[in-house]
Amino acid sequence: MENNMFNNYREWLNEQKMPKGKRSALLAGLELFAKNGYDGTSTAQIAETAGISQATIFKYFKTKQDLLMNILTPIIENFIPVYRDDFFSNFEKYNNDLPGLIHFALYDRYKFLKENSDSILILLSELLINQDVRDLFAKLVLDSRPIFTQTVLKSLKDTGQLSENFSPAEAIRTIVGQLLPFFLQMHFLPETIKNEEETLKSIEKIIITTLGK
After folding, report:
1. pLDDT by residue (tens digit) across 174-209?
2. Is the distance from CB of 28 to CB of 49 less than 8 angstroms?
3. Largest CA distance in the chain
């Protein structure tokens, strides 16, 4: 994968060189797996949404599972690492500013989750039940650990503003613990949130108050 930055995985996929029928199947699978789940989506539905025949799907993918893995594998192995590295490269800007670091991390990662909601929802659901996906994601986590330690955890510690009650790793879990439920609430229960921006500001305030000295 070239290190070009795209707004989301769907945009990246549209730029890849592949037969039109294969791309259509991948895009339709991405949409329907996110909306209905893997088990709730048939190849007939994918074919109809893609505007192709089921025979075309099986020309490029041996099974529905193969189609799923052809969606998730490049997300885990190529797309996420590019955005991971871009995200981590910004942390050194906040060595003496815990509130600024928290603001950046919260808003940047929420933007990424929101713009890639279909990909993220498929990934989250498959992590619960699919060993192949878990193995791929575990490798991503292990590969990310050195740069994560050298950038994110170090930056949190170097601010000198992190409460002694929290280690840098615990601070990250606190941020994720606030961000992920909000993302899921915005996707599945948007009517329960009156103002997205105001809620984000409230979450940011809670995290800064909790983690700061």
Report:
1. 999 999 999 999 999 999 999 999 999 999 999 999
2. yes
3. 61
